[in-house]
Amino acid sequence: MPPQPRRVSRGSLYLAASGLFLACLMVGGGLWLKYHTGWLNRMDGGNAWALTYEADAVGGEGHASAVRYRFNLDRYEEPHRFGRVGRTQLPWSKHVLVNTGQPALVEVDPEGDTVATCRILLDDVRVVAEGRSPAPGRPAVCHVTTSSTPEKWPR
Fold first, then answer.
1. What is the pTM of this model?
2. Which residue has the higher pLDDT, 12 or 110?
3. How far apart are CA 109 and CA 112, in angstroms?
């Protein structure tokens, strides 16, 4: 007598199809989370850093003939802008937004024989860049590239 072909029950087929469907659903859900939660996080908190630009004079009061700085209008817009302040008294400060992975820049042109300093602070607390005029009347420049990962600035 020839061997009987093995019969597969309908229940086993349903179980295998259900397992395959569940595996596909889990992989698809994982891929959706990977690509959409980053977008949701950026939309929720934006993708920019809150920075403070500061300028000061060494050893007392002084004036800057100009202060230039780089910023973004809001957390959701890509194009950056350059701001400029004409003659101003030091110390000076400005709160700005700078998109993730983009350069933050402040440049202070001191008047006369003034030596200027500049700082870039993250959330008004952590100094992420500092600069000082190399000589009286020469500009002080602070520059840093912001972290490209929202909510995580490297130490």
1. 0.69
2. 110
3. 10
